[in-house]
Design a protein that fits this description.
mainly beta; disordered N terminus
């Protein structure tokens, strides 16, 4: 039922590849170009039958988005490193993803096995100005999910 004003309707979040949305975490970074900080939201998904890397699950997918980015002319180069630890089994791992784009967007798939997983995202974001990674900026954030 709609009344005057806005009504918030809870919706199930699902990724394009059928995984379940868990939560979003903020992983903002200083901008390597002169300008405002980069507002980076990392969405966490689990349970997808077909992770984007093509390997079988269980998997945890981290997908960042940076609305607006640095505009249509300027570019960013990024090296995203995610370290993880399965708290149930003790298993650990690291995934590195290099990216080049107009926005600080990247996707990382973790294969930690079943159980609770703590992960840390380390971002190195630089300006693409005739050379990659000019004026690199560093940021990190942490989260948890159950695979």
């Amino acid at each position: 039922m709609l009344a005057a004003g806005c009504v918030a309707v809870p919706q199930a979040h699902a990724s394009p590849y059928g995984a379940e949305y868990v939560r979003s975490i903020r992983c903002d970074s200083a901008n390597p170009w002169p300008g405002a900080r980069l507002r980076i939201v990392v969405d966490v998904y689990t349970g997808g039958p077909f992770p984007t890397d093509g390997l079988p699950g269980p998997a945890i997918t981290l997908s960042s988005n940076n609305p607006g980015g640095v505009g249509p002319v300027l570019e960013l180069t990024m090296l995203t490193t995610v370290t993880w630890r399965n708290l149930s089994t003790g298993r650990t791992g690291t995934v590195r993803v290099p990216t080049r784009a107009h926005t600080a967007d990247w996707d990382v798939v973790l294969h930690p096995g079943r159980g609770a997983v703590r992960f840390t995202v380390h971002q190195k974001i630089g300006a693409m100005a005739f050379n990659p990674m000019v004026n690199p900026q560093y940021s990190s954030c942490t989260g948890t999910a159950v695979a």
